[in-house]
Amino acid sequence: MIITRTPFRVSFVGGGSDLPAFYRKNGGAVLSTTIDKYMFIAINSSFEAKKTQLKYSRTELVDDINNIKHPIFREALKFYNVSGVELCSIADIPSGNGLGSSSSFTVGLLLAINAYQGKSLTSEQLASLACHIEMERLEEPIGKQDQYAAAYGGLNFITFRPDETVNVEKISMSDEKKKELEDNLLLVYVGGGRSASVILQQQSQNLSLSDKFVAQQQIVALAYNLRDALQANNLDDFGRILHENWLLKKTLATNISSEHINSIYEQGIAAGASGGKLLGAGGGGFILFYCPKEKQEKFCEAMKPYHRTPFKFDNSGSRIIYSQENSCHGF
Q1: What is the pLDDT of residues 147-174, one digit of tens each?
Q2: Could you report the per-residue pLDDT of 101-114, keeping only the tens digit for each?
Q3: Residue 86 main-chain phi, psi, to 5 deg
Q4: Whose CA is closest to 286, among 28, 86, 37, 5?
Q5: What is the largest CA-CA distance in the chain?
Q6: Is the pTM above the cut of 0.85?
Q7: Would you say 39 and 87 are in contact if contact means Cβ atoms under 8 Å apart?
Q8: Exposed / middle / buried, residue 13 (Cβ in 10 Å: 0-12, 13-18, 19+)
């Protein structure tokens, strides 16, 4: 049996610039971190060698992997021509909440299958393969940031070039300032878990409009500004940059935000946060707020009606946490 653990991510600035409709023309950039909320994938040889069993929110048992209903399980197993296994997934947080869970699932699954076959992959290979499965084989209208964040782990500045290459640059900060940043970030769950595909499809289409494209360029510029500030150990503008990013992001598609989300965001700002943003494509999930520690008592009191999820930064990326060969016992 092999078990992999893959972190979820929190994207700060630059989201949307990892969509092919944008980075192939302009180049994109995202600043994000992985956190200590994980996707776990376990793989083991099936008791019945000709059966493939999957356990996620549903259970599937098939004789032919082409008949698997779960699209990522199906395409990953077909890509490697693997059958006769049992696969199980467990997550700390349900899917559809803006933390990149789908790509964490894909990355963790690919790492598990390769380890099962006795192969190892670099973080670059793992991320690139996950993009291939999701964006090319499944033709999902998504970007590349989540796959690279999950594979590499840590606080990163990720750039997406028009030639399809991706560069991952670790953000270098003092331990003291990094801990201060971690302490000042608060996750508030606003409900309404959703599929990102519809929103991202509209956002990609809208990038053909000049005003949307310019807004996305401004978001990329903010990502570079935040990178420079963090590497100078300067947190003074962190909240402001998040806020400017959020204002621009809301203009990119009609269903990114809602009156409910806007109301919670405004409550958070009034209670002491200097900025924030809805995570993921939009529509629901988690709002990330930046709130200095001295103002958090008032903030937490105002946010009591909503579920707050504590977290810490993760630096490890997708990894194998358990591996043991099966053994046969005769009589």
Answers
A1: 999 999 999 999 999 999 999 999 999 9
A2: 999 999 999 999 99
A3: -115, 130
A4: 37
A5: 74
A6: yes
A7: no
A8: buried
